Amino acid sequence: MHRPLLAGLAAMLLVTCRDVKNSEPPNPPTVPANYDEAAYQDLSIPDSVLYDKILGSLVGSAIGDALGAPTEMWTQDAISEEYGHVSGFDVVLREPSPEGPWDFNLPPGAGTDDTRWKALTVRYLVEAHHGRRPGEGLTLGARGFANYINGDYERTVSDLKQTAGVEPRPFEDNMRRLTWLQEWAKVSRAYVSEDIDAYRDATSKFYGGEMACAGMLYAPALAAAFPGKPEMAYRAAYDLSIFDIGYARDVTGITAALTAAAFGQTFTRDTMRGLMRDVDPQEYFRSRLLGRVAYNQYRSARAIVRNAQALTEEEARTMTFRLPENYPYDSLTYARTLRAYEGLRAASQDVPFHAGEIHLINLTGLLISNFDFRRALEFVTNYGRDNDTVAAVTGAILGALHGFSNLPEDQREQVLRINREVLDIDLEDLAGSLTQAVLSRRPAPRPPQPRS
Known about the structure:
By secondary structure, this protein is mainly alpha-helical. It contains 19 helices and no strands. It is 58% helix and 0% strand. Helix 15 packs antiparallel against helix 16. The radius of gyration is 21 Å and the shape is globular. It starts with 7 loop residues before the first helix and ends in a 13-residue tail after the last helix. The model is unreliable at 2-35 (pLDDT under 50).
């Protein structure tokens, strides 16, 4: 995940408009004690389907992460020149970095911090479930999340201190793992200290003070704890978005809400529109100057897709482009894709902040593909920019919608194997643990009533 510096005066203005609640260390619990479980998950989702969807969301996100990992922050032209059309995995020929791949030349199917953050979040959710007493609801809060992150960070510090010998590579590897959480720990440690000034200063310097996509990295995993309940997922993600500032917090909440909605029985364009319009517990529509940026970007994405799909074959023939040799679709589809890319580049200038750009690309990919998994991920990956993060979000949403069993078999099996054997992330085990935790909240079935 790459986070640029402030992109112009507009972004600087947006950064100053933080919600003052972001400065309050003790957030209220996400779920009240006297809860009705049906408010927090769609009880009509069968147990076996829930597991398939949770695994689908995790694996779908990892597929997107792996597709974008080799070309993160490349331009669309650079990707086309080097790869033609990206439709599958490739070796990650990048220098290791804390936010990127953790080793040189990782095999096809390997990803970046996008997958690591979802794994960390699932572990946090499972621990939060285990901490409940019988009969209690799930209580998530920013303080608990911050403490969990701090604990992980402290373990990486301990691992570095215990590195044996003097060979450089083990120290480099452990330092990379420590540095991954270092920026985050500066904020989370300040948050639990209850020093408002320290927390304010930490968020103002988090990756340069940009409205980064921090919460978008873990929001889809949080949504899996509230399947089919987008407003509850929004509230949870917003509460736990302690690294976000300004409109980025709303984008984090909407990302979780979209993913949670995809777990439900229906997910259509109307579902998306209604969710973007109606799920607004923080009242971002009342924001001065720009209103609700997340919804405005939905309208921009919808217009971009309509304009691209209106392109006729006659108009496409007047365009100048070279169809990649490995492009699997027809020339009209490619021309419409290029038209959509033009629209994205133009629209991204209206709200130049990182989380907003990712949100816009994700929405456009969902709409132009009509929720087709392969086409959506190919669209967002080949556009470039922060394409591993965008594709990870898009993949999480569509993975929840279609379920693991309906994901491309070659991609899902490759991602499972590489994450387990190379990256030490067992996505099946994580999905199983989270499914069991979510199901533990469901009320016990009523015993059959005797016939009168």
